[in-house]
Structure to design on (614 residues):
């Protein structure tokens, strides 16, 4: 079968350089044929500053991958689909649920593939954790997702603005893992959102789900960072650490490796498969849980935050 | 075909007395066989204070209609479905999106009908408005939904608490009409939420949607109340007033009547049809737009509110 071929990357920031560009370079399926970015460029690749111009100039680029913050992403996604190209979206797939449903409908009407990616689901040990949990009875679950916003999003004010999702920008990765590995659907029972007095989006959140599952999300973690999912079951204790990359069963290493370098290659392999099959993959479950947290959450005003 | 038969009503408050009880009394399909409420009773109908007790004592009651606020509704809905009874839900169908999806799944597994009602969609002139708009090009739309919280929800603090949805409790009626009559899917672009300094949920909201459609929702309206939807199209002006009950085309009355007394009878007729057909009807679109408003909305702190 023919390789999916030429791909363009829109939004050349940290995540594009750290993950997307190396994943495409290592892929047997894809060639990075162009970039679109106001400031960023990748050496050896034709760089555009305007998306519509790139789409018009490079008709052989069949697929476009967007690495933009959620708010400006919709217009770009629409432009890609309107031009009849396949579309790959960084998480979260949009600023609102409605816009993702609109993109799905457009992709269907245009006969192209759309892939709303959840990179953490591709972490090394997620599939093994899912297999281990299947058939076991979960008695309690605890998610701890604590990272330093200054380290991972230096100066990115948009993340704490309305629509930026705040601590749910990383926290949605935990929710994408949970919704993948748990056999039952998750239901949010309560949410406490800590919002800095000078910001709109929460910098920390504590969530309670049905089935005695809770989550502690915090963007103010200095020093060691934690991305852990732990379950106590009727047949032992599972810990998924390092954002899904390391598995421990009853405290003993049981798989995975301490690296996230496999996540994006897996996403690009999956995108190639979707394009070959004429299929799409849009799962809104993690984003619906975030929307539920905003809908149901009690807001506490906390100390002002400055980068 | 056999009539759907005995129905129980859970939550005997204002909306149950004003709308549900008369609609059931007038229905050829239903007999009000029991009520469940801590304090409320309907004369001539057996009253229970505990739902599980009623479900156990009255096995011939095949359908249960819930008139409870969104937060306590889930446990009651689960109990109804677990007991293998058909379920009818007041709007909004839950406190979170996830819980509605869980109820849908339970109903499917139990082989019973679930109906997430949107009473405003049954207003007199909604269907006529939909027909009139179909094929016309909408140039601009304006929703004005202004009512007095003290008149319609006297002392109901829950409505302004976290999870109570605030002004979206009535506003979701407007969104249920919009999502019914518009040919295209609505996308929220921005939301401004006014939250009283002593409350958690917005008391007013201004929304901007794609396609030059905007909404002005306000719970602080004294004097005349307004529930209007207006569209300027390429072929005239449509106004749907009184919550969907009165239609005007280019300023001239074109149908409907100034009464909401037809909405609940239509819902109970539809529920009977769903039960007869072994079907369900759960449309999350209005609630997803509310969740989007909370997700994307900018919050402004406004004057404290007391009933």
């Amino acid at each position: 079968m023919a390789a999916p071929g030429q791909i363009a990357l829109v939004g050349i920031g940290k995540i594009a350089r750290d993950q997307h560009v190396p994943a495409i370079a290592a892929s047997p399926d894809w060639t990075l044929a162009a970039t679109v970015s106001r400031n960023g460029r990748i050496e050896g690749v034709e760089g555009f500053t305007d998306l519509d111009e790139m789409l018009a100039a490079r008709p052989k680029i069949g697929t476009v991958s967007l690495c933009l913050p959620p708010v400006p992403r919709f217009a770009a996604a629409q432009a890609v689909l309107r031009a009849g190209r396949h579309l790959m979206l960084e998480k979260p797939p949009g600023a609102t649920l409605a816009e993702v449903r609109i993109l799905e409908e457009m992709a269907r009407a245009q006969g192209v593939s759309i892939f709303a990616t959840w990179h953490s689901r591709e972490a090394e040990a997620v599939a093994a954790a899912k297999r281990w949990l299947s058939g076991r009875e979960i008695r309690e679950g605890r998610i701890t997702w604590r990272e330093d916003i200054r380290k991972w999003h230096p100066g990115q004010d948009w993340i704490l603005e309305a629509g930026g999702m705040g601590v749910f920008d990383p926290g949605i990765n935990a929710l994408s893992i949970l919704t993948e590995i748990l056999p039952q659907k998750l239901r949010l029972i309560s949410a406490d959102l800590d919002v800095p007095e000078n910001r709109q989006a929460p910098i920390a959140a504590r969530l309670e789900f049905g089935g005695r599952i809770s989550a502690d999300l915090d963007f103010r973690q200095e020093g060691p960072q934690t991305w852990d999912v732990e379950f106590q079951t009727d047949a032992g204790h599972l810990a998924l650490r390092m954002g899904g990359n390391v598995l421990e069963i009853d405290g003993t290493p049981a798989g995975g490796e301490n690296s996230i370098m496999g996540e994006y290659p897996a996403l690009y392999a999956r995108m190639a498969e979707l394009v070959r099959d004429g299929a799409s993959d849009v799962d809104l479950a993690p984003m619906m849980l975030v929307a539920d947290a905003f809908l149901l959450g009690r807001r506490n005003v906390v100390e002002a935050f400055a980068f």
Q: What stands out?
A: Chain A has two domains: 6-116, 120-259+291-302. Residues 120-259+291-302 of chain A form a domain with the Dihydrodipicolinate Reductase; domain 2 fold (CATH 3.30.360.10). Chain A has a mean pLDDT of 95. The longest strand of chain A covers residues 138-146.
